[in-house]
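Good day; I would like, with your permission, to put a structural problem before you. I would ask you to consider whether the tokens describe a fold that such a sequence might reasonably adopt. The full record is reproduced below for your convenience:
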Amino acid sequence: MRIGSGVDFHQLTEGRDLWIGGIQIPHHKGALGHSDADVLLHAICDALLGAACLGDIGHHFPDTSAEFHNIDSKILLARTHQLVTTAGYRVVNIDSTLCLQAPKIKPYIPGMQAAISGVLGIRQQDISIKATTTEQLGFVGREEGLVAYATVLLEELPA
């Protein structure tokens, strides 16, 4: 068994779509980034890569590469999953936390779980997604950005 943790931050800005957990969420601001800036999927990718000792998301999918410009982060998650599987591991479960002031995320969690489950081939009940505000403190509280944290458990595949 191997544990990995990941964290990702993105600035919020007008004129971008807000993608979190593989789904688009209606909001007047979206996350700024080279890809679709899906903060949750990026944190999960980093946790998966870390658990398998495969580096980080920036190593595999650099923001200097035109190949990844505006890419759907579900593709990055699928490629990360392939790397982890090739290294001899399977995903047991994911625990994650989103930190953002708005919008409220609770109604979207089942859709996020379904999207992630579809990419990773694990049960939705093995994907925990929680959300919290920062009580209007800091850059998250001022709605300037958002943060995601993820922890994953991998199990070594039988030889």
In short: The longest strand covers residues 2-13.
